[in-house]
Amino acid sequence: MTTELTTQTKELLSDLKPKKSLQELLNGVKVQERVDKLLLILLDCSSSMSSRFDFSSLTDIYDNTYTSKMSVSWRILKRDLMPNMQGWTYGVLLFSEFDVYWEVIPTVDTKALITKDTPIPRGMTPMGKALQFAWNWVRSNAKQARFIMLTDGMPNDMSKESILEMARTNSTIPIDTVGIGKGSYDYDPIFLASLSSITGGMFVETETVKELASTILKLAPSNRPLLGTAKE
Fold it and tell me: Is 162 part of a structural domain of the chain?
């Protein structure tokens, strides 16, 4: 009996010992292939995106025609961007309340966005953190990428100059910026234009629903195949 227990104990102890070193385990992990063509949408989800968009075409905030900047943006992404993705991978990052999170994890499935309800705007505008997250993710997971950032406000987590300096470091990835609403009143058009200029992207101001819709269609992969190299 004693001999049997001792043998069992040795077997148990043997099982507890690491079979492989950490490096051996890492070497055995299959590396996921990098995304070839990625369109990353950075969408401002701060509380100001709940305000009315395109006053000229609407009458009463309480009637059924009321549309917020967020609801309009979300519908246009579904209607005008998704049918024109050309098989590219895309992802949607929301930034609000000093937080950044995936609303749509990168995928080629357009239904992933189409079936999603409109996000609820809240909090502040951590634009700098959103861009940092996006750049870091792309460097590790993509070969080529482009960003489209839609916003109606200004960053309140970092200074504009700090964000522009980060953009200079990551200038190989184009950033198309879309200002929603009236420039200078809601957002800083000079800052957004600089962010796009540094990275080889495009800046567009949109004050009406029609302008936003035509802009998103113009920036879709079927009409704008521009991509930049994601460097590690």
Answer: yes
The separation between the first and the last C-alpha atoms of the chain, rounded to the nearest angstrom, is 60
For residue 11, tell me if it sits in a domain: no
The answer to whether residue 61 sits within a structural domain is yes
pTM exceeds 0.85: no
In a domain, 15, yes or no: no
Query: What is the DSSP annotation of the chain?
Result: -HHHHHHHHHHHHHHHS-SS-HHHHHHHSPPPPPEEEEEEEEEE-SGGGGSBS-GGG---TTSTT--BHHHHHHHHIIIIIGGG-TT-EEEEEEEETTEEEEEEEEES-THHHHTSPPPPP-S---HHHHHHHHHHHHHHHEEEEEEEEEESS--SSS-HHHHHHHHHHTTTS-EEEEEESSBTTTB-HHHHHHHHHHHT--EEEE-SHHHHHHHHHHHSTTT----EE---
What is the extent of the structural domain holding 73? 35-229
The domain tally of the chain equals: 1
* pLDDT tens figures, 21-79: 444 433 443 446 899 999 999 999 999 999 988 755 544 443 444 589 999 999 999 99
In tens, the pLDDT along 70-111 reads 999 999 999 999 999 999 999 999 999 879 999 999 999 999
